[in-house]
Write a structure and sequence with these properties.
Elements lengths: L11 H12 L8 H12 L6 E5 L5 H10 L7 E4 L19 H10 L6 E4 L3 H7 L4 E6 L5 H11 L3 E9 L7 H12 L4 E7 L2 E6 L5 H4 L1 H12 L2 H6 L5 H11 L9 H9 L2
Parallel strand pairs: 1-2, 1-4, 2-3, 4-5
Antiparallel strand pairs: 5-7, 6-7
The chain binds S-adenosylmethionine (SAM).
Length: 271
């Protein structure tokens, strides 16, 4: 059965624009096109299984996923975040308060508390006992290389055939997302359709390693362009001056425009 054919409601575009306006009050780090794309990922069930979000902060992406997934009936978003403060892995978040009270208030105000299962712990702690199949793995937690790799590897064995993996901030100045996307996803024969929307990198997982070959050109193009970014992130700390300018020039070559829902569904349907 092809799960991607799960129909989007006719008024999906209106739903998304309404969501975009409503979610504006929730603090977070998602650009409008990223919000639209996350809504699509939540709404289109490309495989059986759960939605797992790593890194929830104050609930912005959690709410988007929960509302979009609800379009297809009953769905739970599993959210894992220790919500301790100050955050060791995200010092930029500042704040000497846990994000938990804001998270709880936001999901209540947006009417999705019942659809969210919060695991208030580190992702590697959740991974130790996780047994459910996953249809969408959304990684937006620890942005270091070790942290992102651990997040991917901790849950990769639970990906359903046809599942989507999406990683945030891959085109921001963090080493984790870009390296894991290259090493664990683009170089893996088990991933097929792939791309970017804003700074979200996404790819579709297939149990059959033969599928990767069919997407060779798309994967190779992204591999070549993304690989040029890695030295800047690994060897230039902090990234400033000419190095930063060159990083930005190379980054501008990565296609990352918004997708049309029907076209995206068409592209993940090809198995
Ligand atoms: C950038 S914020 C997430 C933003 C959220 N996805 C949104 O769109 O609003 C990163 C979050 O990851 C959490 N985090 C960091 N390391 C983590 C880990 N190992 N496991 C789970 N969450 C983690 C932090 O506590 C922080 O709340």
């Amino acid at each position: 059965m092809n799960f991607a054919t799960a129909n989007l409601p006719d008024d999906f575009d209106e739903f998304v624009e309404d969501l975009l306006a409503k979610i504006d009050s929730v603090e977070g780090y998602l650009a409008p096109n990223e919000i639209r794309f996350l809504a699509l990922l939540g709404a289109v069930k490309t495989a059986p299984g759960e939605i797992l979000e790593i890194g929830s902060f104050k609930g912005k992406s959690t709410i988007i996923l929960a509302k979009a997934a609800a379009l297809q009936g009953n769905a739970t978003v599993h959210a894992v975040d220790p919500m301790i403060a100050p955050s060791e892995t995200d010092p930029d978040l500042g704040d000497d308060q846990s994000s938990f009270p804001d998270f709880e208030r936001n999901i209540t105000e947006h009417g999705v508390s019942e659809r969210i299962r919060l695991h208030q712990k580190f992702s590697h702690e959740l991974a130790e006992n996780w047994e459910l199949p996953i249809r969408l793995l959304w990684i937006d937690g620890d942005h270091t290389y070790e942290g992102t790799k651990r997040d991917f590897e901790g849950f990769a064995d639970h990906l359903s055939d046809g599942a989507i993996v999406a990683i945030h901030d891959v085109l921001h100045e963090f080493e984790g997302g870009v390296r894991v996307f290259i090493e664990n996803i683009l170089l893996s024969p088990n991933f097929g359709a792939c791309g970017f929307v804003g700074s979200i990198a996404w790819a579709q997982f297939h149990k059959d390693p033969g599928v990767g070959k069919r997407f060779r050109d798309q994967k190779l193009m992204l591999y070549k362009r993304l690989s040029r970014l890695v030295p800047f992130l690994v060897f230039h700390e902090p990234l400033t001056g000419m190095a930063k300018k060159r990083y930005k020039l190379y980054r501008s070559r990565i296609p990352r425009a918004a997708v049309k829902p029907a076209e995206w569904i068409g592209c993940v349907e090809k198995k």
